[in-house]
Design goal:
Elements: E1 4-5, E2 10-11, E3 16-17, E4 22-23, E5 28-29, E6 34-35, E7 40-41, E8 46-47, E9 52-53, E10 58-59, E11 64-65, E12 69-71, E13 76-77, E14 82-83, E15 101-103, E16 108-109, E17 114-115, E18 119-120, E19 125-126, E20 131-132, E21 140-143, E22 148-152, E23 166-168, E24 174-177, E25 183-186
Parallel strand pairs: 1-4, 2-5, 3-6, 4-7, 5-8, 7-10, 8-11, 9-12, 10-13, 12-15, 13-16, 14-17, 15-18, 16-19, 17-20, 19-21
Antiparallel strand pairs: 21-22, 23-24, 24-25
Length: 187
């Protein structure tokens, strides 16, 4: 299976595009960016050198990823999400190394969210319009400015309702609270 690159997309020589990935019109993938297999890079997106995407990642329209952005497998990024990689930006002042933002496996970020250099945990969900200023744990549901923990979600995306320290999702998965700020999936 080969990748599909729209004739009006820009893919620089030296960019790596995985099999089955779709790069739509007006997307720009720079030399040194690595895009995994079966990804969907929608219109008007930008991938700077050093960006790393895993497999099956969806990047909706109007998203720009910068050096230091690492997205693991199965991540969803909604329209117009803003990524940052410099906590103290100044014109013509370039740090030796940009800060890393890591979106771990399966997490979702809603439209118009803003992410400072943070780690978003596995299967976590960031509500649309949120401003994320600190790391988010696995399976967390966060919203607001600044983003705050408001609940927990399953891999399937359903909000979890706990009875004491246990929750069962409608999809059949089970979870257990591990303190107040984290949970674990019971296998």
């Amino acid at each position: 299976m080969t990748s599909k690159i729209h004739p009006q997309a820009l893919v620089d020589s030296g960019a790596v595009i995985g099999a089955g990935t779709r790069v739509w019109a007006f997307a720009h993938v720079c030399k040194g960016a690595v895009i995994g297999e079966d990804c969907n890079l929608c219109d008007h997106t930008f991938f700077e050198s050093g960006v790393r995407l895993g497999h099956r990642v969806t990047i909706k329209c109007g998203v720009y990823l910068w050096a230091g952005n690492v997205l693991e497998d199965d991540v969803f990024v909604g329209p117009c999400v803003a990524f940052t990689n410099d906590l103290r930006p100044r014109s013509k002042n370039y740090p030796d190394k940009f800060s890393e933002t890591r979106l771990m496996q399966g997490c979702s970020v809603g439209a118009n969210a803003t992410l400072l250099p943070v780690t978003i945990g596995r299967w976590a969900m960031v509500a649309a319009g949120s401003v994320v200023t600190r790391d988010i744990p696995d399976f967390a549901l966060v919203r607001g400015n600044p983003a705050r923990l408001v609940g927990w979600v399953c891999r399937c995306g359903e909000k979890l309702e706990f009875n004491g320290d246990l929750a069962a999702c409608v999809c059949g998965r089970n979870f257990q609270k591990d303190g107040e700020i984290s949970i674990q999936e019971k296998l």
